[in-house]
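Explain this record to help learners:
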Amino acid sequence: MLYIPEDLREPVEERYLPVDDEDSCYDAARAIIENLIEKVTVIDGTADGAPAIDFLFDEEGKYTGRQHNHRATFLISRMKHSFADGTFPGRTPDDPEAAKEEAALWSQAMRLVGPVVVIGADDRRGNWMSLPEAEIGHARHLIDAR
């Protein structure tokens, strides 16, 4: 997973989230977020098994004074745009025009606060999982291009 701290002085890091006996990493993610988790699915999983991409953040952060996470907000917008324009690794939208409209809307409306975890999600099993290296590399490239 990719950890994006709210403080711009802290680095974006790849981290490992341990799973519990039920094959869930919820408790480990919650320890990073430090509160209840809000999940936003940025890109859906595919029929051939590519994981969905979820952004996890503090559900109550905007009410408790958490800082705006500029890098995560930027990344969520850029990921939506790269998916819409066909440059996201290994994925293309079924309806490029609808994907472009959705990306524009997300760019205007989305604002993440607090630390953010970017993680893969297995929609079939309902578990979070690692992101493929190509997607982590793409995310890092988008953040660095900022």
Q: What stands out?
A: The chain has one domain: 2-144. The radius of gyration is 15 Å. The helical segments are 26-33, 70-84, 96-109, 133-144.
